[in-house]
Amino acid sequence: GESVGLHLPTLSVQEGDNSIINCAYSNSASDYFIWYKQESGKGPQFIIDIRSNMDKRQGQRVTVLLNKTVKHLSLQIAATQPGDSAVYFCAENRSPGAGSYQLTFGKGTKLSVIP
Amino acid sequence: EPEVTQTPSHQVTQMGQEVILRCVPISNHLYFYWYRQILGQKVEFLVSFYNNEISEKSEIFDDQFSVERPDGSNFTLKIRSTKLEDSAMYFCASSGLRRGTGELFFGEGSRLTVL
Q1: Does residue A98 surpass a pLDDT of 50?
Q2: Using CB atoms within 10 A as the burial measure, which of A3, B14, B108, B113 is most buried?
Q3: Chain B within 8 Å of A10 (Cβ-Cβ)?
Q4: How high is the pLDDT of residue B98?
Q5: What confidence category does residue A21 fall into, taking pLDDT thresholds of 50, 70 and 90?
Q6: How far is CA B86 from CA A78, B19, B41, B81, in A?
Q7: Are B55 and A43 inside 8 Å of each other by CB?
Q8: Which chain B residue shows the shortest CA-CA distance from A5?
């Protein structure tokens, strides 16, 4: 069936290095994608989003890339810090409505930053 | 900074009992949601609520579940007769100062343990 999933369940990076977290999606009709960060015992925290009419969007230390041709999404974190250690989820919006967000989440990638 | 608040943070109940999970969404938001996350698994959409009625619901949201906005600030999820498999973290979320805008803000979650 259609789903959003992540390529790697865990990722370890050295503090100061750049991190890249990948996500594959299979619903070509999805038009909105979000990256969330979830720290232990907390709710998902919005990081950055991108609509399907864009292929790149930058935030503070984060960049999301969208490749619609291969249905691939990535999150790049520059100069990774210990506070970036968390589980990262990509999510796609499948809601047919224009208003609400019926997000489908991927399984998550655990990012561990080595000091 | 405005936030979504949830109570209780943890509830333990016996199988077959009714539970009510409470949420205070961000004021002026128009859409309200419940998601759940079974331990170690991905976050799953349950239901969205707009203009005092259910906007969308997933197949998980069967007849044992109901949502209500009893006043101008609270948004509740009721599970009528809990089952063991209802044990999960339940996240409330809200979005949208205007229809179709904005990110989804999640609360910290209510952990439900069914014995």
Answers
A1: yes
A2: B108
A3: no
A4: 54
A5: very high
A6: 39, 11, 13, 10
A7: no
A8: B42
Beta-carbon-side half-sphere exposure of residue B42 (alpha carbons within 13 Å): 20
Convert A19-56 to b/e letters by CB count within 10 Å (16 or more is b): bebbbbbeeeebebbbbbbbeeeebbebbbbbeeeeee
Q: Which residue has the tokens 């968390």?
A: A86
Residue B20: what residue type? I
**Measured CA distances, A98 to B28, B90, B102 (Å):** 18, 25, 12
* Nearest residue to A40 via CA among B87, B12, B39: B39
Q: Is B25 on the interface with A (CB under 8 A)?
A: no
Q: For an interface test with B, which of A101, A109, A110 has the most B Cβ atoms less than 10 Å from its Cβ?
A: A101
Once rounded to an integer, what is the mean pLDDT over residues B74-87?
A: 96
Nearest residue, CB atoms, B45 vs list A97, A99, A103:
A103
Looking only at the bridges linking them, the beta strands covering A45-51 and A19-25 are: unpaired
Interface touch A97/B96, C-beta < 8 Å = no
- A27 contact B CB<8A: no
